[in-house]
Amino acid sequence: MAEFALDPQIAADSYPVTELKLCTVRLQRDANYPWLVLVPKRADAVEIVDLDPANRTMLLDEIVKASAVLRDTVKCDKLNVASFGNAVRQMHIHVIARTFTDPGWPKPPWGVVPPKAYAPGAAEALAAKLAQRLK
Amino acid sequence: MAEFALDPQIAADSYPVTELKLCTVRLQRDANYPWLVLVPKRADAVEIVDLDPANRTMLLDEIVKASAVLRDTVKCDKLNVASFGNAVRQMHIHVIARTFTDPGWPKPPWGVVPPKAYAPGAAEALAAKLAQRLK
C-alpha cells in the first residue's frame, strides 16, 4: 500500500495549518479569501464516492469542523465547499470564507482575480489561530 | 416552520430528475457537462455546517449515490462536487461529470463557455435514465 505524500502543487500553493485524523489542513496562499484546503491522508484517494464509508464520514465531520472554525475565526457571509481535482488529482476539499465584498463575489473564486500575497507573517498568524481552534 | 419550495432560479436552470429522501434532484440545462444539482428539501437551508447531523449524513449519502449513478451513466474522467450558494442562497450541491475534452476542462465549469442547450428530448431522456438508476 502506497504511503500518503502531499501533492507538491498543493504544498507550494498553501501554508500548513494542522493535522486532523483524516486530513492534513492547509491555508491557501491567497489573501483575497480565507481559504482552507483539506487533504485526506489516504494515498491515491481521488473521488469522494470511492472513499470507504468510514473515511467518508470522517471527511464530512472534518469539513464541518473546518467550516465552523473558519466562520468563527473570520468574518464571512457564505461558505463555499468544493472538490474538483481536475488540475491536481490528489483529493482535496476547498472550504472558503466568502464575503459580499470579496473580489470574486458572487462567482466561484477560481480565476476571477490573481491570488494576492498575505502580508509578512499574516498567513502564519491566521494558520496558528485556526490550528488552535481545530484542536 | 416554513415549507420547502424550490428556488425559482434553480427551477428555471434545470430539468426535474427525481426525488430522494432528502434532496430533490435536477439536471442542469447545460449539455456541455452532465450535471446534477441536489437540493435538500429543508426550508431555509443554506450552509452544510448548519444542517443537523442526521440531515448531513443523508446529504452525504445522496451525494455519493448521485456521484455513482452519474459516473455509471455517462462517460467521465473526474467528478466535481461543489456547494456555493453565492448567487442562489438556497442550499444546492453540484455533482458534475467532467471529461478531459469538455469545453471547460480543467477549470471549474462556471463562466468558461456559455451553457449549451440539449438537443430536443435529450435532457428528458438522460433525466429519465438517471432517475431510474437513482431509485
Report on this model:
- The structure is a homodimer of 135-residue chains.
- Chain A has 135 residues and is α+β, with helices and mostly antiparallel strands.
- Chain A has one domain: 2-Layer Sandwich (HIT family, subunit A).
- Chain A is 29% helix and 22% strand.
- Chain A has 3 helices and 5 strands.
- A 5-stranded antiparallel sheet of chain A has the order 1-2-3-5-4.
- In chain A, strand 1 and strand 2 form a beta hairpin.
- The longest helix of chain A has 21 residues.
- The termini of chain A are far apart.
- The mean pLDDT of chain A is 97.
Which keywords apply here?
homodimer, 135 residues, alpha+beta, five-stranded antiparallel beta sheet, 3 helices, 5 strands, 29% helix, globular
Beta fraction of the residues of chain A? Answer: 15-25%
The N- and C-terminal alpha carbons of chain A lie at a distance of 29 Å
Number of helix segments of chain A? 3
CATH architecture of chain A: 2-Layer Sandwich
- Output mean pLDDT of chain A: 97
Protein chain pair with the most extensive contact, residues per chain: A-B, 30 and 30 residues
- The count of β-strands of chain A is 5
Order of strands side by side in the largest beta sheet of chain A?
1-2-3-5-4
**Overall geometric form of chain A:** globular
Number of domains of chain A: 1
Tell me the structural class of chain A. Answer: alpha+beta
Oligomer: homodimer
The level 1 CATH classification of chain A is Alpha Beta
CATH topology of chain A: HIT family, subunit A
Q: What is the CA-atom radius of gyration of chain A, in angstroms?
A: 14 Å
The unreliable regions of chain A are: none
Helix percent band of chain A: 25-40%
Largest sheet of chain A: 5 strands, antiparallel
Element-by-element helix/strand order of chain A = HEEEHEEH
Query: CATH H level of chain A: which superfamily?
Result: HIT-like
